[in-house]
Design goal:
By secondary structure, this protein is mainly α. It has helices spanning 3-13, 26-43, 46-58, 62-74, 85-96, 101-109, 113-127, 135-146, 159-162, 171-183, 195-199, 214-223, 229-236; strands at residues 187-189, 208-210.
């Protein structure tokens, strides 16, 4: 696996030295030393390294590794205050398994606002019977929503509209979010008889399809912390030609 991800996990789980008031209490120093030592032993355990390697081949999104660290820390108790190898193995197996329902929900909850908007855009295209499309088509769908009423004729932001309508991001920024969806297997490439030719195309011109069901899109837009009423209205809007 990538050493950078392993180092990131180690840094996130590392306990820092206590403040000046606690330095005089040796029990805190001893706990910190023992905790960090246990953490290093676990992260270099061969079984966990194998699981993390599987996870690396499934997703290379740093947020998945940060989620793994949060889930491991959430299992600590007063009776069991140190990280355990068995907990890490169970958690990393779940993250590495794309068929896991819990992992799928965790992945969807970890999406940022732009990724969420792109999923809604692709869902709306799919409801217009456009099952596969390239990034350019998704970007057009995104700009048809986000670009409206953001600025007046003089180019100044319309404050009333900008309070509910997202500011239009650069195409490069949107493309990065698109590629993250691909890395997380929420969007997948379409393979056809022209697959060899398709692989020669730049990513933004290759055909892809949304791998998130309509039921999950509805749940995501309703529950995600980065969703809002404006996005929910856009998702619910009647698709032209299907009313």
């Amino acid at each position: 696996m990538c050493r950078a991800f392993l180092q990131m996990l180690s840094n996130v789980l590392q306990l820092s030295p206590p403040n000046s008031a606690l330095k005089r209490q040796p029990q805190f120093l001893e706990f910190i030393t023992n905790f960090n030592h246990a953490k290093e032993l676990i992260l270099y355990h061969p079984l966990l390294r194998a699981h993390l390697n599987d996870m690396y081949h499934t997703t290379r999104d740093a947020r998945a590794y940060l989620q793994l660290a949060r889930m491991a820390l959430a299992q600590l108790t007063v009776d069991q205050p140190y990280l355990r190898i068995d907990s890490f193995l169970d958690l990393s197996s779940a993250v590495a398994n794309p068929q896991s329902k819990t992992t799928g929900e965790s992945t969807l909850h970890s999406l940022n606002r732009m990724e969420l908007v792109l999923i809604v855009a692709m869902s709306k295209l799919r409801r217009r019977n456009i099952d596969s499309c390239n990034f350019e088509r998704v970007y057009d769908e995104y700009t048809s929503w986000v670009g409206r009423n953001n600025f007046d004729a003089s180019g100044r932001a319309c404050h009333q509209a900008s309070s509910v309508v997202d500011r239009k991001e650069t195409k490069t920024t949107v493309l990065i979010s698109w590629e993250r969806l691909l890395q997380q297997d929420l969007v997948g490439w379409v393979i056809d008889i022209n697959a060899v030719t398709s692989r020669d195309l730049r990513n933004e011109y290759r055909m892809a399809k949304l791998l998130v069901s309509e039921v999950d899109v509805e749940w995501l837009v309703a529950q995600h912390t980065d969703s809002n009423d404006e996005l929910r209205r856009w998702n619910r809007a009647v698709v032209a030609g299907l009313a």
